[in-house]
Amino acid sequence: MTVQKSVNLTKDPSGRPAVDLTKVRETAPELAKLADKAGIVLSQQDLSGVRAQVVVILDHSGSMRADYESGAVAKIINRALGFALQVDVDGTVPVIPFDGRVWPVIDVTMTNFSTVVNDALFRPQNMGSTNLTDALVQLKEIASNTDDPIFAIIVTDGNPDNKTSTTRLVCELAGYPVFIKFLALRPVDYLSELDDLGDDKRLLDNVDAKPEKGTSLNLLTCTDAEFIEAMLDEWSSWITVATAAGVLKA
User: Fold this and answer.
1) Which end of the chain has fewer CB within 10 Å, C or N?
2) What is the mean pLDDT of residues 179-196?
3) Domain 7-249 is of which CATH architecture?
4) Residues near 96 by Cβ (< 8 Å), separated by ≥ 6?
């Protein structure tokens, strides 16, 4: 278990959001509101100004159909973008949809966030199984070529097709500058297992899964502030251990 890729940890000393929120307040006030709340929580955790590339890996399996149709997926994507406006290196969030296959990347921005799920991400006639392994292979490829830390958000509702290969990829990604945040629309015991993997199996702890097993957190009904706090849980500790391991360079 060794470092496979090392990048600089960038932090704007002013603590400013990554994206100027002035225009966002005019054109997308709901996103600005989310970004403001993210800014408050980042400040409380001494993470203001930290930069990363936010990447979303989005479950498009058949069991997620109702979540697309109800607007649940759109709500998660919007909340992720609101967070990204504070930290993302370019204000654009690449979304990697996957089911039995990995679909082409769709960029979510301030201009398309309100319609992108129904217009580009949801393919109701082409929903399959849960091949998270191949989606993680793509994430590993991105990580191999990045100059920035990656904050990877994986939105799902169940177990992957192959737990063994998924676990292997998660462990491999520990050697890259990738923090993995699982957001489960319904409780998934396997994700808690990934969260609690022993350090003897990977270089460092690179995973946090929400909701945690045994808690009542609901990512769809919790407040925006609670959502942001869930997003940031363990990111600071990952930065610390990744820096100590040499995955991040301060």
Assistant:
1) C
2) 93
3) 3-Layer(aba) Sandwich (3.40)
4) 55, 56, 57, 58, 102, 103, 105, 135, 138, 139
